[in-house]
Design brief:
heterodimer, A: mainly beta, 4-stranded antiparallel sheet, 25 strands, 10% helix, B: alpha+beta, two-stranded antiparallel ribbon, elongated
Chain lengths: 337, 171
């Protein structure tokens, strides 16, 4: 009997220790992210407007579902440095689902385009830094869901080959990532769908709402549906696969990959009846797990992206709130190297 | 001395007029040569790398690709009833009683096809804005089995700008 009691007590102790260590693993170190000022953006984010920090600037698309989406680039002070009315000859309507801005000023857009007489296609567009040249790749039947411009100028695309009919089974051998050069040449493909999950009859492709990010020497891809993050070197070699923190399909997820390899993932839980809105940033220094959670005071927020060693975030879309990544993360990543 | 000054002035005026004319002409010709009216030079490539004359070259019209159809489906299918609300959560919104729109959604079955998930922005001012999950129909981007449904527990979305819609598989 005494043995049983001792056994139960030891079980209790072990479970207590486990929960404490688990909570410590999820506890934020308060010095990791510190406020570092803010920049007011000179426009309103209405419906059809979206912004990301990409290629050292805030890239914004307005009227993203229209005849001519407008792409505006802002520097760190909020000054507009370029504006481009994106048009395609014959296209009467353009849906721009994904876009990115390269370090050299290039603009990349992925989406669909339709003529007024009922012709349509998926496309990937490369726009030169001076906006004088536009190379447009007809990607159909490949659907472009996410894009980024890597530090070496290559274009990375996440997407899938669409099905013609509901009776057609999904092709799980298809690669979900593609790399192109600026002339539209396909450089390579990677990540077969089957490498991420087992086939299922009713499922959304993993690239649904996925995000691509790039840093000085890496490219990252996060699939919210699979809660999986994959990181690659610039030549396409898979470097690491990380399971993301728990979140719901309705939560707003955004991502930032810093040049020192630190990864930040933002999860905003939206308000609703019986739901308290909340915003947290999860940090993952390079090759350093598990995720560290940093609950934020604001009820809503998102990460635009990482600017060197600062996170560009927003809590109301009217300004960029900068968060400096402390030396702790850098030290951890340096140690890992 | 005075006459010389007048002559010099006249020469100067003529020179300025001549320079302006030359400059304007050069600018017009330069623009015409390289970037007429700011239009970029387009290069179209097929998925296999073949150069095309147009992005739509060789494509046949598809009744599903009607812009009017897609606009109508987007407008009609997502029919949460918007009602005015004065309970915006932001401080300034409360202070100035900014009217907002809150969708009254109920849980609904996954319905439709070719819906895609998007993130949209809304900003009702007073420091109240954000992104929320929404959906749009797109017959070129969506899947035949992709339906959409409002999430009843998230009606209101961010700052009560709209309901949250998610894409779901219905076949």
């Amino acid at each position: 009997m005494r043995g049983l009691i001792l056994f139960l007590y030891s079980l209790l102790g072990v479970s207590l220790l486990t929960s404490v260590s688990a909570s410590l693993a999820q506890t934020a170190s308060s010095d990791l992210l510190t406020p570092a000022g803010s920049t007011t953006v000179p426009f309103r984010f209405g419906s059809g407007t979206l912004g990301i920090w990409s290629g050292g600037a805030l890239a914004v698309v307005q009227d993203r579902f229209s005849r001519a989406p407008t792409f505006r680039i802002f520097d760190r002070t909020g000054r507009e440095i370029s504006r481009h009315l994106f048009t395609i000859p014959e296209a009467a309507h353009i849906n721009s689902y994904a876009f990115a801005h390269g370090w050299d000023g290039t603009l990349v857009v992925g989406g669909t385009a339709f003529t007024s007489d009922g012709r349509g296609t998926n496309f990937l567009a490369w726009v030169s830094p001076d906006r004088s040249e536009q190379t447009i790749i007809r990607t159909s039947p490949f659907v472009v869901s996410a894009v980024t411009v890597a530090a070496d100028g290559t274009i990375w695309v996440a997407g899938h080959r669409k099905r013609i009919s509901a009776a057609e089974p999904w092709d799980y051998t298809q690669p979900l990532l593609r790399r192109y050069d600026r002339t539209g040449k396909l450089l390579g493909t990677s990540v077969p769908w089957s490498s991420l999950e087992a086939p299922a009859a009713r499922t959304l492709p993993p690239d649904n709402l996925s995000q691509l990010v790039s840093s000085a020497d890496r490219v990252g891809w996060y699939s919210p549906r699979l809660r999986t993050y994959l990181e690659f070197s610039l030549d396409g070699t898979l470097l690491r696969t990380v399971k993301g923190p728990q979140h719901d399909q309705k939560d707003i997820v955004s991502l930032g990959l810093c040049d020192d390899g630190s990864l930040f993932l933002s999860i905003a839980v939206l308000a609703g009846p019986g739901k308290v809105p909340s915003w947290s940033i999860y940090a993952l220094p390079r090759e350093h797990e598990p995720w560290e959670v940093h609950p934020q005071e604001a009820p809503w927020g998102a990460i635009y992206g990482c600017d060197g060693s600062r996170l560009a975030t927003t809590t109301d879309l009217s300004r960029i709130s900068w968060l400096a990544v402390s030396p702790k993360a850098a030290t951890a990543s340096a140690r890992a190297q | 001395m005075q006459l010389g000054s007048r002559k010099e002035l006249a020469v100067l005026v003529l020179y300025v007029i001549f320079a302006c004319a030359v400059g304007t002409t050069a600018l017009i010709f330069h623009k015409a040569d390289t970037l007429p009216f700011g239009t970029p030079r387009f290069i179209f490539v097929s998925a296999s790398g073949q150069v095309l004359h147009s992005l739509f070259e060789g494509l046949e019209a598809n009744p599903l690709y009607s812009i009017e159809l897609m606009t109508a489906v987007n407008r009609n299918t997502k029919n949460c009833d918007p009602v005015p609300s004065v309970t915006a959560p932001g401080f300034f919104s409360r202070l100035f009683d900014v009217p907002t729109v809150q969708a009254q959604c109920v849980a609904a079955e996954c319905a439709g096809s070719y819906w895609i998930q998007i993130i949209d922005s809304c900003d009702i001012g007073g420091g109240c804005g954000g992104w929320y999950s929404n959906s749009d129909v797109d017959y070129a981007q969506g899947d035949p089995c992709s339906g959409t449904a409002p999430t009843a527990d998230h009606c209101g979305g961010t700052c009560e700008c709209g309901a949250v819609w998610v894409v779901c598989m219905q076949c």
